[in-house]
Model the fold of this input.
Amino acid sequence: MNLEVVGIDGPGDNKVVNNLIAKSVAGDSRIDVASGSMAMNEAESRFPDSFTGNIQQTPTFSDFNPEAVADFALTFNSSGVDEGVALTKTIGAGNGTTIRVVDAGYFTSGFGLLPGDLVRVGATTRVQIVAVDYEANTIEFDRSIAWLNGQDVTLEYDGSAPDIGAIEGNLNVSSTRPRAPTLAVQ
Done:
């Protein structure tokens, strides 16, 4: 697989972090950046802030020729099951409805169109996002919680860790990442 990530001298602000990337028939996945084409391992070595934690294995989807969103669910024995990591971490300890995180850009409040993301703060606290301030890197929840400094913040998941990919196994997809409404135009 070839992946093109373009920046001025390298990948720029783009990040390829904790992904399950199928190897090409020829071997390692190739990354194309402004400074040239290289193997994924070399990209992770040269640009560790932009390329890290990626797994080069072919995923096994629930459907051999995936087309619909549900077809991209991983089978129980696929690479990527329970191999995901936290999207971000809390900054500081506290309690309340608003927390500060390293990077709030992974999450959405639904922008008034859909319900916000369901997330975990730490291993067990589950809450729904009602607002995100992307400049301040803060997330507001539907209820008050307590948290510690450096706690993981992830989208809701089933198992010991998040699955890597479009769909988290054994969760009702519509309850964690609602689909956009279908509008009929007449």
